[in-house]
Design goal:
- By secondary structure, the chain is of the alpha+beta class.
- The chain folds into three domains: 96 residues, Serine Threonine Protein Phosphatase 5, Tetratricopeptide repeat, CATH 1.25.40; 70 residues, Immunoglobulin-like; 110 residues.
- 56% of the residues lie in helices and 14% in strands.
- The strands form three sheets. It has a four-stranded antiparallel sheet, with no helix packed on it. A three-stranded mixed sheet has the order 4-1-7.
- The termini are far apart.
Amino acid sequence: MRFVAQSLWICLMFGVATGTTHPVHAADRNPAPARSGDSIVKDHLRRARRAQASGKWTEAHAAYKAAFEAIDATSVTEKESAEIAGELGLCELKLRKFRDAAEHLAWSLERRKALSPEQQKGFAEGLAKAVPFLATLYLSVDPPDAEVFVDGQPIGRPRRSYRLFFEPGKHMVRALAPGRGEGTQTLDAQAATEPIMTLQLLRSAESSTGEGEPGGPAKKAATDAQAARTSTPAPAPSATWPGTVRMSGIVLTTATAAVGAVFLLRAHVVNSDLREANTARREQGWTSDACRKASAPTACADIHGRIKERDLFATLGKVSLATSAVFGIATAASFLTEVAIFGDGRPAERLRIVPVTTSERAGVILKGAW
């Protein structure tokens, strides 16, 4: 009996141990490693390079595009990102997707410091082949935090200036910024052209607190304005021509300032391109006096042409701004001259000079009736 009792006790303990122990599966012993975003990008790249080596450009384009779209969600280095964008652009060039090719090749060349000289040369040559089929727009936006849309689609993070590529045809460029009005312009893009566009968004006017309320401040203001019109005698003919001259001065001041800004913007763009090209040539072994030698490379003629273009636009911009300043000073002086000659206090009452100073510019605003 004692032996039987011991046997039953042992069987009971074995059953308890078996019931509380979890079964071990093969998956628990060897869990499958989770695929990281980096491995997904590398898989796309391997597939893209195999297809590219076989001349299967459509398949290579799809794989490079998938890798490029996965960049933001991974820890891919800047060098790898630039290489992926450049190779994607070359595939698109083979498939005659010129606009996409130009955008991706330009995006890659913006990170040229991460590329090898051979890659820089190959991507730059690809971009040069795509550009003749497109219009290259140099766009400046004020304020720089405005969001820009092209044909209804956002074009990325806000910047002060852009270089955008368009296929020939009509396109709509639109800019929006908080607290500002909307800026919209139509672009008639033509191949192998480089148009310049400026979008300046004005501050939105504050709405009236009594607008739309019958009998409120809006109605009172309208009544006062009507009374002023009926009580004010018509100005004499001799009093109207100074106002016309002043308006013309203001228009000329604004126009010449805008033209000068456009010229200086173009000069800045050309100068930036020259600096980038100079950096690339130095990395390729060029010296500072390479273009002054008797055996200068043929590329030096293009470099001299670009330098002349930059200097011309810079000179025109400075002359336009100086002309604008002259018109502005003459227009402002006309108000003071009228007071000094006629000794009448009314012109001074009509004129207000308001100084304006911001982080970017300083000047005055003339407010009055002319």
